[in-house]
Every structure is written in C-alpha cells, then in structure tokens.
C-alpha cells in the first residue's frame, strides 16, 4: 500500500503541475482534443503516460532539511511533502517521528525491494507492490493505519484518475491560444488548402468578440489574414475576407490597423479583378465593415478609386446580388455622414475631430460625377421587394444630390409609376388582411414621396 501511495503521489504531482500552469489564464474555453488537440496538450498527456508506465523513476532520499523535489522523482512513504508557495516547488523532508523512519528502514532492509540501484521503473514498483501484498506485512501501529487511510483518501487509485481524465476528455485552452494555433495553422506552408480554410473558418467565430479581434493584432495575426487576401487561391481570399469582415465590424482599433496593413487596397484589387462571385461577396462584406463608422477609411476609399471599382462591379453581368449590397453600402455611408452632422448640431458631445474627418469625405459629389444617380435608378428594375426597398432608400438619400439627374431620366418616372400601381394593389391586400402598417404600404409611401419630389 505504501508503494501504491508513491505511485499515486506521482500522478497527483503531474496533475498538479498541469493545473498550475493554467491557473493564471483569464478566460477558459473547453475544446475537445479530437477537434483541436494542441501540441502542448498532447505533450502533457504523453508525459503523464510516460511517468506512469515507461519512465525510470528516481527515488528521492529525504533528509531532515526541506529539499526541492524534481519532476519524476518518487517520494518514499512517510516523508513530509509541502508546496513552497514562493517557488511553486514541492519540497520533501523526513518525517520527524521515528516510527516512520524505522518503518522506512525496515522496508529498505527487507528483501521486498531487491533492486540494486536507486532507480525503479514503474513496472518494478508494480511487481514489488504485488510481492508486498502477498508477502510480509509491515507491522503498523494504529497511528500508521490511520495515516495510510488518510493517504488512501487523498490519493485516488490510478485507474480511477485515468478514467476521470478520459471521461473529461477536455483541454483547457484560452481564446488567445486557440487563435494563435489557428493563425499558425493558416500561416504554415505545410498546411493543406483544406486545413487553411478550416483554420480561417474557425477563426471567424472567435474574432466576432471585440477583445479577441484586438488580441489578434497583438501577435501579428491580423496581418497574416490580410496577407491571405493576396493568395492565388480564391478560397483563401474568400475566407480571409470572411474573417476580416467579422474582425473589423464595429471595432475601430482593428479598422485602423487594417488600413495601415494595406487591407483596403487588397480588398479593392479583388473586387476589380476576375474572381468567383462567392469570393467577391465576402470581400464586399469586409469592405463594408472596414468603411463603416471610419471616415478616414472612407477618404482613402475615395482616393483609391473605390467608387469606380464598385461601379464596374455592379455593371458586370450576373452581379445583382452584389449591386444591392453596394447600393446599401452607399446608403449607409451617405446617412452616416448626415447623422454625424446632425448629431454635432444637436449635441456638444460629438468630437469635432470626427466631424472634421467626415467633412473630408467628399462622397456625394463623387457619386454624382461617376454616374451613381443613374446606376441606382436603374436598379429599381430589380424584381425582389427587398432589393427595391434598398434602392428606394438610396434614391431618397441621394435626392438632394441627384434631383436634376432623376428629372432627366424618363425611365425612372415610368418605373416609379408602374411600381406605384403594383404596391397600391399589394398594400390594399395587406390592409384587407388587417395590417394597417404593412411592408407594402411602407414601400408605397416611399414611391409616392419620390414621385411627389420629382413632379
Ligand atoms: C507567418 O509565416 C512567416 C513566414 O513563414 C513568418 O515570418 C511569420 O512570423 C509568421 N507569422 C505569424 C504571425 O506567425
Ligand atoms: C499583395 O498584392 C499586391 C498587389 O495586388 C502587392 O502590391 C503586394 O505587395 C502584395 N503583398 C504581399 C504581402 O505579397
């Protein structure tokens, strides 16, 4: 039983180090090792295995002084073991009571452990344990028995502990560690395309959290993803943009870094060149996240010819889905600037610096010059209600800028009149269904007011 205690003590020690090394982490997530087994976790598991089965155990010889115990050292039963809180080391010395020493001596003198050196393999210990059980009893006092019972309670049987570990089947990993691992996977030249895409896909989940997205900056992970936009693989471009879109979203710190890291140019290059539609969709999403609420990026976007890039995009065949998103982006940018001005008028809280930034975004003149009044008007011919809704919104937001262009566009009036009839009918049906503030009625309202303005 004494030797069993020794073995169990070792197991406890390895468990203890494992737990200690994770003590300071502020955020814990649980991941199953099959899905995300880190090298670190694998190493730890094997270490524990080795300590149990194959590694040669060195037996520690305690003295009357406290001595630090090295990992892998076995402690004779009856020793005093304590944790030094300053150093984190486990320290051992001999028990003061003579009984334990004499017991130890008896144990050593006896024929039970017929091993010559100071090193035992765990197999030796197991066979010794077997002999010990069948053979001679150590004379033990009541006190000893109580102590051994206590040790037994403290050190649970190895099999039980192993079973617990297997059942738990978890590795404690922080979000930061996961992101580092995913970035390394993505950045590694030995990863397959599939592995890289999977890494980006997983990463996207983590960077939705603002803190995580900012942590991504701290170890250069964001730049690695931005550089992924340069990949020759359309799928890598697509999923890099997917991650970036999530990371930029309402996260000024990340947006600033991304501009400095050249993300804007790379996104525009992808939109301006031949690429699969799915890639362009995600890139457009990333562009929207980067520009929103970031007037400096909007200025750069205009300087880099972003409006021309978007114009070519919406004029290409088969890109109606993208066209509606582009128009929505423009609507957002126009109204964002308008709100910044309004807010500055209403409150004293808005930082004048931000307003100055918005004032340098010369979006509306650019839109007018580059034909966006006409482009937007033509998109009203799209068949989907929600696409029309977005286009109507944008036509309204551009009204002050585009009024004369709208007037000169006979097709626009015709489209509006036909839509008026269509939504009048739908709004009537809606009303019959008991909805007096319905969707179609709202659309009809926008159409009516546009027609009124253009009369
Ligand atoms: C990505 O890989 C490159 C080249 O292999 C290396 O220089 C760089 O440090 C890596 N970046 C990160 C964040 O791991
Ligand atoms: C990425 O591509 C752009 C051109 O599309 C090039 O100017 C830039 O140097 C490239 N960056 C990297 C890191 O390869």
UniProtKB/TrEMBL annotation:
Belongs to the SIL1 family. Coiled coil: none annotated. Keywords: Endoplasmic reticulum, Glycoprotein, Protein transport, Signal, Translocation, Transport. Required for protein translocation and folding in the endoplasmic reticulum (ER). Functions as a nucleotide exchange factor for the ER lumenal chaperone HSPA5. It comes from the Eukaryota. InterPro entries: ARM-like, ARM-type_fold, Hsp70_NEF-Inhibitors. It is found in: Endoplasmic reticulum lumen. Its main location: endoplasmic reticulum. GO terms for molecular function: adenyl-nucleotide exchange factor activity. Residues 36-47 have a biased composition (Basic and acidic residues). Residues 32-52 are annotated as: Disordered. It comes from Puma concolor (Mountain lion). GO terms for biological process: protein transport. Gene3D superfamilies: Leucine-rich Repeat Variant. The gene is SIL1. This is Nucleotide exchange factor SIL1. PANTHER family: NUCLEOTIDE EXCHANGE FACTOR SIL1, PROTEIN FOLDING REGULATOR. One of its GO terms (cellular component) is endoplasmic reticulum lumen.
